[in-house]
Amino acid sequence: AAESQGHISVVLLGATGDLAKKYLWQGLFQLYMDQVSSGHSFTFHGAALTALEAGQRLMFDVLKKLACPPDETPDRCAVLKDQFLKLSQYHQLKTAENYTVLNREIETLLRQEGLKEAGRIFYFSVPPFAYTEIARHINSSCRPPPGAWLRVVLEKPFGHDLESAQQLAAELTSFFREEEMYRVDHYLGKQAVAHILPFRDHNRQFLDPIWNRHHVERVYEHLTSSLSSGRTSFYEQYGVIRDVLQNHLTEALMFLIMELPANVSRAEEVLQGKLQAFQSLRGLEKNSAVLGQYQAYASQVQEELQKAQDYISTTPTFAGVLIHSDNLRWEGVPFLLTSGKALDERVGYVRVLFKNRAYCTQSETLRDAGHSQCKAKQIIFYIGHGALNTPAVLVSRNLFKPVMPEGSWREAVGQSDLRVFGQPLSDYYVYSPVKARDAYSVLISNIYHGRKDFFITTENLLASWAFWTPLLGSISHQPLRLYPGGVENQHLLDFEMVNGEVAFTVAEPVELLTNDYRTIQSKFRQSPLVSAWSEDLISHLASDIEKVACRTVAHAGQFHLALSGGSSPVVLFQRLARHHYAFPWRHTHIWLVDERCVPLTDTESNFFSLHNHLLQSVRVPYFNVHPMPVHLNQRLCVEEDRGTELYAKEITALVANASFDLVLLGVGTDGHTASLFPRSENGLEGAQTVVLTESPVKPHQRMSLSLPLINKARQVFVLVLGKGKHDITTLLSRVGHEPRKWPISGVSPSSGQLVWYVDYEALLG
């Protein structure tokens, strides 16, 4: 902005609302004070739906209360404030005509003053449902002329889940270009959060060797409030995960785990690094989170939102979530994100705790305790409030003395009796900002300067929602732990990590008895049936597979497991990878039941899915993995290449009597299993053990084990998940042995056992 001198018009929509009153007008006044000598001229246009006279009165009541920073002289402050008020005016913006009139007024002012237009800032401090209509009006009648820039500033929430975020993004991109949109997450303006990347950059020499899984034990991100009331209407719609974790804490997490770009001042490099960090995150499951709700919340909702007495809120006001990144730098390091209302204190911090391998023989009193290698080693980005009550960066003295920019951060001097995470403040190098700045003042300055790396791009937004939405769906009906609030919470909300999951450490005071999650065991098609809610079912199935594997390896020395493709087994693969550390992978051979005729690196490939969700996470010897040979002689599934014969020979050579120890199958809505489809020409009968088949859906060509080979297995488990499978499940419960119509009905191991694993949705609809 400083390069192209001219006039800037700032339009604040929602100028009389709470956010504008508390932060935005003060931020705009700070911008004016900072830039009054920059060569730019300004006008500030407050706008709302309120009629002209009432709106003017409300807005100027706010402007009269604006404050200058402590280092500003009273005389200069009075002059600047007077100038700012003269440059500010109120508009009612309700109709298309109102926007046309505003545009005409801006153009007239520029013409009368002989000013060149540099650009326009439109700050949307309004609910998201109003975005599209306002965007349409700005685009059609209030854009600056060619040569001047447009910056549109958007406040969260940006959607409720991935689908709604995509819809809102699509609507906005029909009116504005990506470079014109500045989505605000005000935590990116918090001084400690904004300094994470610069800190990593300035201290590369110290951090490069230790900023990885070999040295970092765990990372905490914590943002809590002692308040229990306020924003009830908003909170009931969104809850703590959408309000805090999906945005504030996730953005801070990206700054921690992203690969450091060569130039942290280049917005494009930073944004690209964040997107790559998102791609490395492991998917969240229901047991990745613990949830709570403070006891008074339900009555607040009933009272403030006028809900019926029997209304039950399922909105979490507390959440603890365990996140893992599967890139090489962070593999295995737990990232714990915690936020909640009605806790014992208001505090925010990001805390990186390093592993400590030291053992100190001598008493701590006999040495320089601050530099003791036996004390905790940590770096803390202290966002604010809490014991310190100021933004700060703390580095353990037994790590290194950090490099900090002198003009903006200063080292705290003098001893204090404060303790931070159990250690005296003297154990840390402590730095605080030279000049404390409100987050919105920082962000408004960055908007003026066009610093896009402090804002959320569309790609960044959708990547975040894609990560969080599956968890939000899986916990929507999860019971919440009730807590009284404040110090009375005691240990109720403490949680721990167990086998890649999190769980509360102490039982609830009152145990609630429920039959919702019990496992049903009975018969289906004359074979054993196991049924439960899908997550419990997958857990049960994974345990059963492990038991079969351990038993078989103890008896025969090796375990031959044939796995199907498709979407249903993915959650099973993930469960096996993350929770079954006693599984005898070293003695397991992995075979494919079927494969699509695409290269193994294609995302449509069953092997690609198996590799992504299971094989890369477990220690199966390379030579024990047997993908189907669909890609031979640089072509796919050509009969002359004899891929089916090659696989059949490999099975015969390695699997005793060609009898797999366990075959896992699924069922299609048409009754197909493996890649054996109704009225298939191949594979339903005959001597051939591996066949080429045709699917009615793309990719059409498939390779599959035949029904006779499947029926030679010692155990066959069939997994059926979801409401979409209810009709075929009901049909299969009534039909007999008719593999030409329904290939799955032909599965009947000649000397083995068949077990059905069907979730409640598939079984009961």
From TrEMBL:
This is GDH/6PGL endoplasmic bifunctional protein. Pathway: Carbohydrate degradation; pentose phosphate pathway; D-ribulose 5-phosphate from D-glucose 6-phosphate (oxidative stage): step 2/3. Residues 199-488 form the Glucose-6-phosphate dehydrogenase C-terminal domain. Keywords: Carbohydrate metabolism, Glucose metabolism, Hydrolase, NADP, Oxidoreductase. InterPro entries: 6-phosphogluconolactonase_DevB, G6P_DH, G6P_DH_AS, G6P_DH_C, G6P_DH_NAD-bd, Glc/Gal-6P_isomerase, NAD(P)-bd_dom_sf, NagB/RpiA_transferase-like. It comes from the Eukaryota. Residues 534-756 form the Glucosamine/galactosamine-6-phosphate isomerase domain. It comes from Podiceps cristatus. The keyword Magnesium does not apply. The keyword Transmembrane helix does not apply. It catalyses: D-glucose 6-phosphate + NAD(+) = 6-phospho-D-glucono-1,5-lactone + NADH + H(+); 2-deoxy-D-glucose 6-phosphate + NAD(+) = 2-deoxy-6-phospho-D-glucono-1,5-lactone + NADH + H(+); D-galactose 6-phosphate + NAD(+) = 6-phospho-D-galactono-1,5-lactone + NADH + H(+); D-glucosamine 6-phosphate + NADP(+) = 2-amino-2-deoxy-6-phospho-D-glucono-1,5-lactone + NADPH + 2 H(+). GO terms for cellular component: endoplasmic reticulum. Its EC number is 1.1.1.363, 1.1.1.47, 3.1.1.31. GO terms for molecular function: 6-phosphogluconolactonase activity; glucose 1-dehydrogenase [NAD(P)+] activity; glucose-6-phosphate dehydrogenase activity; NADP binding. Residues 11-193 form the Glucose-6-phosphate dehydrogenase NAD-binding domain. GO terms for biological process: glucose metabolic process; pentose-phosphate shunt, oxidative branch. In the C-terminal section; belongs to the glucosamine/galactosamine-6-phosphate isomerase family. 6-phosphogluconolactonase subfamily. In the N-terminal section; belongs to the glucose-6-phosphate dehydrogenase family.
